[in-house]
Amino acid sequence: MKIDFVVTWVDGNDPKWLEEKNKYSPTDEIMNTDIRYRDYGTFKYWFRSIEENAPWVNKIYLITEGHLPEWLDKENKKLVVVKHSDYMSSQYLPTFNSNAIELNIHRIKGLSEHFVLFNDDFFLFNKTDKDDFFENGLPKDCAVYSPVVPYREFSNIVFNNVRIINKHFNKKENLKKNFLKIFNFRYGKQNLRTLLTLPWSNVLGYWNPHVTSSFLKSTFTEVWSEEREILNSTSLNKFRTTSDVNQWLMRYFQIEKGLYIPQKSNFGCKVTLNEFERVEKSFKSKKTKVVCINDDFGVEDYDIKMKKLISLFEKKYPKKSSFEI
């Protein structure tokens, strides 16, 4: 089984990219704030973490608007550089919408049926093998039900995903078919979330660990066939909007169809720059395999924290990867 990694990256400081972006105006400034495009100089450590902890990966597909880090060795045999224009319809371009970029990745030429989607702030912090992401040909995932809590504009996107799921699937039937996958010891205390949603006949939402997602490419093809209108509408949006859906919809389809193997709930974690003590602790963890170090609103002492973060990465991954010149 060949497993590819797909990672998206943008250089928010690229003058040409900024000039193009400024030609358009997002309808929702909060969902498209500059921190969503901010590159804080840690991407080379992403490659170092992959090379050290997932040397078995088949290919790495790096998706960009066209710009590349100056340190990147484009000749690396495992690296495939993909521009938006290489796989997205011209009617969707230019795009500054991460939802549109991710919803179309199944169109990338040569991409394996089994692939793992990363953001550029998802790092592998411990050794992994193929079974951490796929088992018996199926994606590993946490099928935990949990209500959608409306606390930010992004919640609308999650709500849109769940509405579509309830259109296509029957929660009670899925519970009967996949009971031991939905209530599974690997989820630990997260099983309580699913238990508390049982009184409702429809899906209220899902627990969404903000870490890597393992996908079957065929799932994207199927969902596009079933819900082309809203996927096309999302792809046409230059920036993220509250009417969008996102790639989690594909996860939810896989869950409802039983196309997954239960994943440990502590497989990964998300920490933000506003909780830097947790960031530091994550570097010392011997169990957590995927860590998302997320930018955030109103980060105090940003420059100081970034220097500390780079220092942590240098200590953990001091050796250049083969993806660096």
TrEMBL record:
Location of the Stealth protein CR2 conserved region domain: 36-136
Tagged with keyword Zinc-finger: no
One Pfam family this sequence matches: Stealth_CR2
Residues in Stealth protein CR1 conserved region domain copies: 1-26
Transcription recorded as keyword: no
Signal peptide segment: none
Keywords, ordered alphabetically: Exopolysaccharide synthesis, Transferase
Listed InterPro entries: Stealth, Stealth_CR1, Stealth_CR2
Family named by the database record: Belongs to the stealth family.
Database matches in PANTHER family: N-ACETYLGLUCOSAMINE-1-PHOSPHOTRANSFERASE SUBUNITS ALPHA_BETA, PTHR24045
Designated name of the protein: Capsule biosynthesis protein CapG
Organism: Pediococcus pentosaceus
